[in-house]
Here is the input.
Amino acid sequence: MKNNVLIVGASGGIATALIEQYCLNDAHVIAVSRAPASELTHHENVTYHQIAQQDDEHIGAFVKQLREQDIVLTTVVITTGFLHNEDTGVHPEKRLEDINEQALTAYFSTNSITPALWLKHLVNIVSKEGSTLVCLSARVGSISDNGLGGWYGYRASKAALNMFVKTASVEYKRRVKDVMLVCYHPGTVDTGLSKPFQKNVAAKKLFTPEFTAKQLIAHISKLDREQTCHFIDWNGEVVTW
Here is the structure.
């Protein structure tokens, strides 16, 4: 079977590095983003699709289009994520008084709802002969590993994402059979998402997108496929839910 890889959020740093790595592995990459195509997405192994709005209607129409083309996906990586926005003044909250409706809406829309909608539609076109779906999550989305507090919206939206993935894995297993879903914590990666928060990160713990992509691909290839859902970090270590 041809290795068809779907990368959602293809304009981001981690996604761009993943596209490059999968192309090196001779996979056919289907790249999806709300942004215009980058230079990398013009690679002969890449089919690029710009979706102006990643809502239920547009995601559903796109997946239907792939299905009509008889495309079966072996790997999916959903890289969409939101942490801050300088233009709207949204930053991770330090105390309860910082919580506001606008920020919470932004966090849940990108970090929870959009991936959930992709999971809803992708169940119809992933391979039943060994497919893997990965969502970029975060360690701060772990409820049991929360000892510092703060970052209310980001933490809660990533925790919601983890629950969506965990719950979807039960139904995916019933409908797709040989499938594995993964929540993946990439660590602190040198991208726009982490820029304002890098000053307190040790140099050896600030990862390049290329390193991150290689780690992700390597680790998911080694996971126990009998376990339907995993939550792991950049080092392959289990993160508690």
Remarks:
- The two ends are 34 Å apart (CA to CA).
- The chain has one domain: 4-233.
- Helices lie at 13-24, 56-68, 101-122, 152-176, 209-222.
